[in-house]
Design a protein that fits this description.
CATH class: Mainly Alpha
Number of helices: 14
Low-confidence stretches: 1-10, 208-217
Shape: globular
Number of strands: 6
Mean pLDDT: 84
CATH superfamily: MFS general substrate transporter like domains
């Protein structure tokens, strides 16, 4: 690894991090812009333009997000063994841009969704799995790299509903979908222009295979523990994914969005989550650093469990608000408070979980192991689609209370995994 990509004296950096990290999060920032831009419009487009029923729209939404996170399992293996991570990102981004532009044509709706999901399979696991290669093993910055990366990609998530959502809602759905495609092309161009700052590709089929210790962190214990974490995250996402689905429907029909003489566009609320990610991450990182310096650093599973519990608290708030509001529309301030609580919980779960999978990945299988993280998102999205179908069957308060219970169950599962994960970390450090 060159001096440029190592943490050390004379290293060229941007914002105190390797330049490659900036390239990676800018690339994913624009990919997230395209994804969240399309997602902000998707449910409304299906119910208003295509005239799908609410249960059918929720099913399509859940099936699409599930497929978008299933294809990385195959794409990660292909990237590790044959294409290499760089080529996989380029191929995936190109296919995804095509899919976003196809969304501008009603007759191509399902084909467009399938095309985006296919491209995502190559892109999604191959980009973050390059982060570890930017740092030496003893670089203290590596522990915070995924939180920094998470802030970067949420800039795209913040801008997307404001731009794509506003274009789609005010000027026509196809303008919003077209803007998402332009964003995907911007990410591809940034990635192509920053190749010199990224770690070199090493494909598994070109590497000399190392013996596998079945009792070590790369053996059966690792697979079982990561599988258990994936199960807990699957349950968690059953509640988490409702932000773009049933919570968005409630924002349209159950929230008083008046501000002065204006009405806040419903898609703008989708920008609150990524905006809060950007604002809250530096605060959380500062708190975690102080706690670590004082010897009170919480292990990953405990942080994730706390985050899931906080998300459950956010949904409990909505259950209480809808209970007391009855048939009257709730103030948009309650929805904003929900997003604040929700985002704090999210920051304890998602970047930490992604970093956990990437850190424990066996050598030469980085994209494949990160793809396993997205397998949990796949199964969680399917679960979320089924949970979303209950929106039409339950009253609003009972539905949000159910989401609070689901998030709390996930918190309990993650807390039970604390000791197994710590044992694997200890074993890995000893090896």
């Amino acid at each position: 690894m060159t001096a440029l990509r190592q943490a050390g004296e004379g290293e060229a950096t941007w914002f105190g991090q390797p330049r490659g990290l900036t390239i990676l999060f800018l690339t994913n920032m624009w990919e997230q812009f395209s994804y969240f831009g399309m997602r902000a419009l998707l449910v409304y487009y299906m119910t208003r333009q295509l005239l799908f029923t609410q249960p059918h729209s929720s099913f399509v939404y859940g099936a699409y997000t599930a497929c978008a996170y299933f294809t990385p399992i195959v794409g990660g293996v292909i990237a590790d063994r044959y294409l290499g991570k760089r080529r996989a990102v380029i191929v995936g981004a190109s296919i995804m841009a095509l899919g976003h532009f196809l969304m501008a044509f009603e007759a191509m709706f399902y084909i467009a969704l399938a095309t985006i999901a296919l491209g995502n399979g190559f892109f999604l696991p191959s980009l973050p799995s390059q982060i570890n290669g930017l740092y030496r093993g003893d670089d203290p910055r590596r522990g915070w790299a995924y939180n920094v990366y998470y802030v970067g990609i949420n800039i795209g998530g913040f801008l997307a509903p404001l731009i794509c959502g506003t274009l789609g809602e005010l000027y026509g759905w196809h303008y919003g979908f077209g803007a998402a495609g332009v964003g995907m092309l911007a990410g591809l161009l940034i990635y192509l222009g920053g190749q010199q700052y990224l770690p070199a590709d090493v494909r598994a089929k070109d590497a000399v295979p190392a013996p596998v210790d079945e009792s070590g962190p790369s053996g059966r214990r690792l697979v079982l523990v990561l599988g258990a974490v994936g199960l807990a995250v699957t349950v968690f996402r059953g509640a988490y994914e409702q932000v773009g689905n049933t919570v968005a429907l409630w924002a349209e029909s159950g929230v008083d969005r008046r501000l002065g003489g204006l009405s806040i566009p419903m898609t703008w609320f989708q920008s609150l989550n990524p905006l809060l990610v950007m604002l809250l991450t530096p605060i959380l990182l500062a708190v975690w650093r102080r706690r670590a310096a004082a010897g009170y650093d919480a292990p990953p599973a405990r942080r994730m469990a706390l985050g899931a519990l906080i998300v459950g608290g956010g949904y409990f708030l909505l259950a209480a608000v809808t209970w007391f509001a009855g048939d009257v529309k709730a103030s948009w301030l309650w929805l904003a408070l929900f997003f604040l609580i929700f985002t704090i919980g999210e920051l304890f779960v998602l970047p930490i979980g992604l970093g956990l999978f990437a850190r424990l990945a066996p050598p030469k299988l980085g994209a494949t192991t990160v793809a396993a993280w997205y397998l949990a998102i796949f199964s969680g999205s399917l679960f979320a689609g089924m949970v979303g179908g209950l929106w039409s069957l339950l009253d609003r308060s009972s539905y949000f209370a159910l989401l609070a219970v689901i998030a709390t169950v996930a918190a309990g599962l993650l807390r039970l995994l604390d000791q197994p994960i710590r044992r694997i970390d200890l074993s890995q450090s000893e090896n």
